[in-house]
Amino acid sequence: MPHNSNISPDPSSPIRLGPRYTREASKHLSPLRHLRCVYKAAVLFVVLAALTSCFHQKPLSRDELKSKLQMAASIGAETTTFIDYAAERRATSRYAKGHVEYLLSELTDTVRELCEARAPAGAETQVADGCKELKALAAALGQLRRDIDRPDELAREQHQIADLRRGIQQTISSL
Questions:
Q1: pLDDT digits (tens, 9 = 90+) for 113-145
Q2: Which residues make Cβ contacts (< 8 Å) with residue 21, sequence separation at least 6?
Q3: At a CB cut-off of 8 Å and minimum separation 6, what does 71 contact?
Q4: Of the chain's two ends, which shows fewer C-beta atoms within 10 Å, N or C?
Q5: Residue 60 in 3-state DSSP?
């Protein structure tokens, strides 16, 4: 079939591709349209960031608050019992450090959930106190993880963790 030159347009002649574009037009957006797109994207990003920060603070009921504090008190009780077990050299160093790391991980999740949540009405003080106590317990567990192989430090740390647990129990009873 012979090639018909009337069908294909001359590459040097402008072709209308739409209401505003020709072959000679740039493939990129004009600077004004580009700025408009960047502005829209920035506004969208700010709105999404604001929305996620609003949803970041999940409301906490009194029952949930009590549950989180009881979980932390339970971790404190388990830790004091485990310190006795470790002090008797019934656990290897690796196991002891791993178990304390696990307890710390569980407590860290609880601390984050409690401290990032909105307090129930009338329990703002208990949430603030609980958050402070849980952070102190997490710090004590971190110290215990470092000192688990030092029997001379275990009794002091066990006493400190027991005191923190009693403080958490007092916060629970004040709800």
A1: 999 989 888 888 999 999 999 999 999 999 999
A2: none
A3: 106, 110
A4: N
A5: coil
